[in-house]
Amino acid sequence: MEITENKRIEVPIWHKLCLTIKEASVYSNIGEDKLREITRNSKYPFILYKSKHILIKREAFEKWVDAQEVI
After folding, report:
1. Is there a contact between 18 and 56 (Cβ–Cβ < 8 Å)?
2. Are residues 35 and 56 in contact, defined by beta-carbon separation less than 8 angstroms?
């Protein structure tokens, strides 16, 4: 972990419990537009809504990606 100048702790993506769409895109190499399209369907177990924001539960997302043959 790294503390930046404004005292905010930066946690590596692979240690985070939840990811933003942008972080999930970088982590999985799936485009942000495709992830937004996928997250519009609330049936997936890796989606977490925080007010108007969508977060991706990293471990559940990893399992889901592992099970896919085509995205």
Report:
1. yes
2. yes
- Which one-letter amino acid corresponds to residue 3? I
In single-letter form, the type of residue at position 40 comes to R
**Pairing of β 18-19 and β 9-10:** unpaired
4-36 tens-digit pLDDT: 566 778 899 999 999 999 999 999 999 999 999
> Rounded to 5 degrees, what are φ and ψ at 12?
-60, 145
Query: What tokens were used for 6?
Result: 């404004």
- As a whole number of angstroms, the distance between CA 25 and CA 32 comes to 5
pLDDT of residue 10: 86
